[in-house]
Amino acid sequence: MLNEDFFGRISIVFVMTVMATSSAIPLFRYFHQDNSAGSLAIVTQLASTVFLLLLLVMTITRLPPKGTAQGIEPRVTAVAGTFMILLALNLTPALQNGAAQVTALCLILIGTASSIFCLYWLGRSFSLMATARRLVTTGPYSIVRHPLYICEAVFVLGMVLSHLSLLMVALSAFQFLLQYRRVRNEEAILRQTFPEYDDYAKRVPMLLPRFLSGAIPNSGGQ
């Protein structure tokens, strides 16, 4: 398990380094733009860069695993669920509508900023794959068991609006399905690793806060 975690960490560090560098480069171009969405675009791009750098740091410093989902399906689901939106962006052109782009940037910024907060709270327990390192139940994880996925969903909705097309909607819908399956895989390994997880799941809903879900019991993990 340790060797697998080491090689997985190296791979993720490489990918995140490339993505963080690619995210930082457009910042220089944005400073020379003069349009109504320019400032918002700079802040959004900066937030994306900070998020990727935080992912990089948390991956390098993450705790050793106490349990990991077995088999190829959880790994394929995690990778596909993470990067499906990038495929969708490369296959669809941006929508030529100023108001839509500003709204999309707002959604992307909200999703990214809230993701930074959740990731910071999750800290060294972060994993791309379905892995149990430490059970986090405070902060945003006391409201829902998977706050990072909710924040990402807001980000994806912004991307869908920015590149609105039938293909983009279809690919993002598929990505949501992959992420839900990813949640279930994480739930299984967290329950298997932490005996206290069942009590946590009874107290805290999986994805929707109780004031939205009508206090309907739910089951799942972080």
Strand percent estimate: under 5%
CATH fold node name: Four Helix Bundle (Hemerythrin (Met), subunit A)
What is the level 1 CATH name? Mainly Alpha
Strand order of the largest sheet: 1-2
What would you call the structural class? mainly alpha
Number of helices: 8
Task: Show unreliable segments.
Answer: 215-222
Number of domains: 1
Order of helices and strands: HHEHHEHHHH
From the coordinates shown, what is the CATH architecture? Up-down Bundle
Global geometry: globular
The gyration radius over C-alpha positions equals 18 Å
Mean pLDDT: 85
Kindly state the number of beta strands: 2
Largest sheet, strands/sense/barrel = 2 strands, antiparallel
What does this protein look like?
The chain has 222 residues and is an all-alpha fold. It has a single domain, classed as Four Helix Bundle (Hemerythrin (Met), subunit A). Helix content is 69%, strand content 2%. The C terminus is likely disordered.
Task: Give the gist of this structure.
The protein is mainly α and 222 residues long. The chain is 69% helix and 2% strand.
Layout of secondary structure:
Layout: H1 2-30, H2 38-61, E1 67-68, H3 72-91, H4 98-122, E2 131-132, H5 147-162, H6 166-193, H7 197-203, H8 210-213
Helix pairs in contact: 1-2, 2-4, 3-6, 4-5, 5-6
